[in-house]
Amino acid sequence: MPRMGELKIVTGTANPALAARICDHLGCKLTHSLVDKFSDGEIRVEMGDNVRGDDVYVVQSTCAPVNHNLMELCLMLDALKRASAGRVTAVVPYFGYARQDRKVVPRAPISAKLVADFITVAGVDRVLTIDLHSGQIQGFFNKPVDNLYAAQVLLEYIRKLGDNLIIVSPDAGGTERARAYAKRLGVGLAIVDKRREGPNKAHAMQLIGDVKGKIAVVLDDMIDTAGTMTEAGNMLAENGAEDVVACASHAVLSGPAVERLNNSAFSQVIVTDTIPLNAQALSSDKFKVISVGSLIAKAIHNIHSESSVSVLFS
Questions:
Q1: Which strand (E) or helix (H) includes residue 251?
Q2: Partners and quaternary state (predicted)?
Q3: How much is the CA Rg of the chain, to the nearest whole Å?
Q4: Cα–Cα distance between 55 and 8 in angstroms, integer?
Q5: Is position 171 annotated in a ligand binding site?
Q6: Where do the domains of the chain lie?
Q7: β-strand 268-272 against 243-251: which pairing, if any?
Q8: Binding site annotation covers 41?
Q9: What pLDDT band is residue 199 in, cutting at 50, 70 and 90?
Q10: Which of 117, 221, 228, 242 is deepest in the core (most CB within 10 A)?
């Protein structure tokens, strides 16, 4: 039997559709809450139901607008703490600022650590997230962090693409992730070597591996401006790939991303719903969204019932 009180799900405004899917899988309803703005732009948060002693899960991706959604999350955590919730878990399917996890230039912040401190001070007891950009961010928290892998839901769809697959990493840094997918699928691995010329600017240089006649799946943890992804996809098509598919956990899709993907060699772009698609992406027939609602629901059920969460990593 769980030690905590009643299981309750609360959502911010970042991704209410995902929160609803999680509730559908758990067989419960969203706990009523008010998340709005005051006339001067400040965020207004109120919990509509009694949560005293309950096990509460706040679903809120810190995607664009990042600072607004992050502040919204922290205010909700603080409201729950002051309402005497028994345990508060921040379910952050997409963790913003994760790419700033170390100092790469002098006199720069380590933003991921600061965001972890924000969330901790706000009153969180546990964090649940999906495909952190850097695994070491778990160490930035002095609270338990469960970093789930979207591979649990993405692999099932990728298998249906065909038997002649090859997994491609768009850069050397993503090789470990691509190798894990390739191993699970029992297929080959290729790497696109690139050089980064600046923030959000990359230039693909050469291909390591043979993709001729293969269905090449370019795998990354996120698609931001899609510069890296589209250059890799176009290179694979030029090197004889039968079909080229993009696959990522987080559809950040900032700036010219959707336009680049629409004009690229990719036949489809597979993403999850950790971030809701913007209007431009929704109007494109290239995008295929796989929900992580069931995966998060299983993790929430196991945490609430004091069962093992690690079984979801296998």
A1: strand 243-251
A2: Homohexamer.
A3: 20
A4: 6
A5: yes
A6: 7-148, 151-290
A7: parallel
A8: yes
A9: low
A10: 228
Which CATH fold would you assign to the domain 151-290?
Rossmann fold (3.40.50)
Which of the 8 DSSP states describes residue 52? B
Complete DSSP assignment for 149-193? -THHHHHHHHHTT-SSEEEEESSGGGHHHHHHHHHHHT-EEEEEE
CATH code assigned to 7-148: 3.40.50.2020
Q: Give dist(CA 132, CA 158) in Å, integer.
A: 21
Contact 169, 190 (CB under 8 A): yes
Q: Is 225 annotated as a binding residue?
A: yes
- Give me the amino acid identity at 286: K
Q: Tokens at residue 78, please?
A: 């603080």
User: Which residue shows structure tokens 């004889």?
Assistant: 240
The predicted structure's pLDDT at residue 1: 45
Mean pLDDT of 269-292: 97
- DSSP H or E run through 118: helix 111-122
Q: Given the DSSP bridges, would you call strands 188-198 and 201-208 parallel, antiparallel or unpaired?
A: antiparallel
**What's the CA angle centered on 64, arms 294 and 126, to 5 degrees?**
50
Angle made by CA atoms 36, 42, 47, in degrees to the nearest 5:
40
The first and second tokens of residue 146, run together, are 């469960």
228 with 171: CB under 8 angstroms?
yes
Overall pTM > 0.90: yes
CA distance 69 to 61: 7
Kindly report whether the peptide bond that precedes residue 93 is cis, defined as omega within 30 degrees of 0: no
55 is in an annotated binding site: no
